[in-house]
From TrEMBL:
Known pathway: Purine metabolism; XMP biosynthesis via salvage pathway; XMP from xanthine: step 1/1
Gene3D superfamilies: 3.40.50.2020
GO molecular function per UniProt: xanthine phosphoribosyltransferase activity
Assembly with partners or alone: Homodimer.
Keywords of the record: Cytoplasm, Glycosyltransferase, Purine salvage, Transferase
Function summary: Converts the preformed base xanthine, a product of nucleic acid breakdown, to xanthosine 5'-monophosphate (XMP), so it can be reused for RNA or DNA synthesis.
Primary enzyme class: transferase
Organism expressing this protein natively: Lactobacillus porci
Subcellular localization(s) per the UniProt record: Cytoplasm
Protein's recorded name: Xanthine phosphoribosyltransferase
Catalytic activity: XMP + diphosphate = xanthine + 5-phospho-alpha-D-ribose 1-diphosphate
Family: Belongs to the purine/pyrimidine phosphoribosyltransferase family. Xpt subfamily.
Length: 188
């Protein structure tokens, strides 16, 4: 998306370690008008897929996720990164290793919010190594739901997540696809 690429060029900051900082509109301060535009684009891309639920992860997936769900007129559920306090509830869990933070998080969703027969659209802010996407897909599939695709705001196509998703037969839509962050420059 042109408007997103322009915003990244204008406000994105490239940090060492191939990290693109976009916390002035996506990861800390959030631009709601831009998020709505992104949500409309996800909804357009997946309009023929009978999506019944959007699944994302807290925290940064929630903004694009809610806008996509709003435009598709379906509920959004976000996986939590903290263990649920009510252990009596039936939950699906998945382990997500973060290469950037060197920690493993257990993400979870209560079973009552993901169903067999659901057609799930997975949304996230960033696709890097794909660990978060894999975890979200696992949660949906544990429920017997079908993953109709993965939509991300920004993918770093040179890291492993992009290829993993395509190699495993998942549809991937990235609204901005970053080819390189070499020398502090963003190349799409
Ligand atoms: P992966 O899920 O694709 O494997 O990503 P990885 O472990 O490498 O990244 C861990 C966290 O860092 C994720 O957020 C991911 O979205 C984010 N991230 C990865 N690369 C970038 C980048 O270049 N720029 C920005 N801004 N974020 C990046 P998270 O831990 O789930 O955090 P949050 O949702 O609470 O923000
Ligand atoms: Na994220
Ligand atoms: Na993030």
């Amino acid at each position: 998306m042109k408007i997103l690429e322009e915003r990244i060029k204008k406000d994105g900051i490239v940090l060492p370690g191939d990290v693109l900082k976009v916390n002035s509109f996506l990861n800390h301060q959030i631009d709601p008008q831009l998020m709505m535009t992104l949500g409309q684009e996800f909804a357009r891309l997946f309009k023929d897929d009978q999506v019944t639920r959007v699944l994302t992860a807290e925290a940064s997936g929630i903004a694009p996720g809610i806008m996509a769900a709003y435009c598709l007129k379906v509920p959004m559920v976000f996986a939590r990164k903290k263990k649920p306090s009510t252990v009596t509830d039936d939950v699906y869990t998945a382990e997500v290793y973060s290469y950037t933070k060197h920690v493993t998080n257990t993400i979870s969703v209560e079973a009552k919010f993901l169903h067999k027969g659901d057609r799930v659209l997975v949304i996230d802010d960033f696709l890097a190594n794909g660990e978060a996407a894999k975890g979200l897909i696992s949660l949906a599939e544990q429920a017997g739901a079908e993953v109709v695709g993965v939509g991300v705001v920004v993918e770093k196509a040179f890291q492993g997540g992009h290829d993993w998703l395509l190699d495993h037969g998942y549809r991937l839509e990235a609204l901005a696809s970053v080819k390189s962050l070499k020398d502090g420059k963003v190349e799409f």
